[in-house]
Amino acid sequence: MSKKSKILNLVICGAAFVIMIVFLFFVDDPKEIWNAFCSASPLYMLLTVVCMLIYWFLEAVILHSVVREVHSKQKFKNSLSVSMIGQYFNCITPFASGGQPIQTYYLMKFGVPLGSALTALLSKFIVYQAMLTVYSAVILIFKLHYVVDTNPLMMPLVVIGFIVNTAVIAGLLMLAFFRKPTVKIAHFVIRLLGKIHIIKDVDSKLKFVDEEMEMYYKNFQFIKKRPILILKMCLFTLIQLTIYFSISFIIYLAFGLSGTDYLTIISCQAFILMISAFVPLPGALGAAEGSYVLFFKGIFGGYVNLSTVIWRFLTFYMAIIVGMIFSVLVNKKGSFAPPEDNVTRVTVKKNIRNSE
């Protein structure tokens, strides 16, 4: 990510925050906003911050557990730094696309070989995507009727978001268990796009796709041989998602509101995440805030705009601030780790021990 793009995305995020605050004071009376904010329970508001800290901590724990499998010398403080820097770049790039590349960069800075870093990050992505899809499917089964009854116009967006998330994990699973047919399908699509002049250099795209699919396939082989690691990552990811979805419920309690159950509120939060998944803007700017207001206006009532600002600051802008601090504090000196794949060397060593 170039420096200009990074600055531009930060400016966009900053401008969006200013617009959100101005909008809040435009639609609501400033005195009422201040009175509402002062009426919020300090204990519950502190709990929302604690939830985000736990969310980030679990993110680091999951990353550390998988990195340690391929690089035993990894330190937790380094995993925490890499995790928070990844949060920062996920927030300021479209589709959260900047997180993994920058995390690879910093893992190498901390001594993790390139192949090992890619294996760890892709394994983590696969587990997260799978758990998000499962979580979303359960929510849809139990609460889709709520969307139909209260926000029927939002239902197509929720379904599209779920389909996008499901398609990603379905493609990864197809590549893991049906590798050759998946490659053929990908080649067919690329050649078709080439014929209708959407893709210009078909051969280079075919080569790129083959390399990417080969890398994903190898990573599946890595995680398939570690069921205990997978179960641990899945458990931590489910807890992590539940904590993230619970923040809106805690804000709800902070204002002394009642009448809406916990499952309904975390379901609305899950629906917002589904919608945000296919918005090509940093942090799904605009779509996240808009869908939050639409889903929660009947739940928060007059507190909906203020709760939107609080939720967005906690889950998005605070990650940018803290992640930026980590990126500044991390020591950028030192040499990169060699590009060899540490997974191969670990496997060879284990085979030698077994033969002895």
Concise summary:
81% of the residues lie in helices and 0% in strands. It has 356 residues and is an all-alpha fold.
List the helices and strands and how they pair.
Elements: H1 3-27, H2 30-39, H3 42-70, H4 76-91, H5 99-109, H6 114-150, H7 155-177, H8 179-195, H9 202-224, H10 227-254, H11 262-276, H12 287-300, H13 304-329, H14 342-355
User: How many helices does DSSP assign?
Assistant: 14
Structural domain tally = 1
Would you identify the regions where 5 or more consecutive residues have pLDDT less than 50?
A: 341-356
The percent range for helix content is over 70%
Strand composition percent: under 5%
Characterize the main sheet.
Answer: none
The residue-averaged pLDDT reads 83
Oligomer: single chain
- Total strand segments: 0
Q: Nearest-angstrom radius of gyration?
A: 22 Å
- The N- and C-terminal alpha carbons lie at a distance of 48 Å
Q: Structural class of the secondary elements?
A: mainly alpha
Shape: globular
Along the chain, the helix and strand elements come as HHHHHHHHHHHHHH
How would you describe this protein?
The protein is an all-alpha fold and 356 residues long. The protein has one domain (3-332). Helix content is 81%, strand content 0%. The chain is built from 14 helices and no strands. It has helices at residues 3-27, 30-39, 42-70, 76-91, 99-109, 114-150, 155-177, 179-195, 202-224, 227-254, 262-276, 287-300, 304-329, 342-355. The protein is globular and about 60 Å long. The N and C termini lie far apart (48 Å).
Kindly list the characteristics that best describe this protein.
356 residues; mainly alpha; disordered C terminus
